[in-house]
Amino acid sequence: MKPPQKRSSYSWFGHGHWARVLGGALPARRRNAGDPLATVPKPVQTLALIQRHEALRARGRPPFSVIVVDVGDSSPGQPSPLRLLQAFQGRARLGDEIGWIAANRIALILPLTDRDGARCFAEQICGQLLSGDGPPRFEIFTE
Asked: Which of 78, 81, 129, 143 is the most buried (most CB within 10 A)?
């Protein structure tokens, strides 16, 4: 039996990266039961989803990507989190997941997706969310 592999210290999924990305609790309005955004996993649950995909990747599964979209503070000119959720649901494949990663950031988890595929997906989604200031900012992480 092979000994378990050590996690690399440079993994962007390590505690250092997510300690920086995670931050702030969700505003109370997003926790209301009648709100469609209430079904979106909270940051702790989203981190668990990402760690599950990282563990699968460590066992030889194909790469996956995470797109972190900055939805701002719901002020004029910022994309609405609800619009992002609707755009994602319209383009998501079976197995793609979405979750809060911080107060104003939503993570789109795309299994079996390399960086180029994630960039194409992010540009399509963010193109649907054009606001007065242009498309929302996003970061792509691929493992």
From this structure: 81
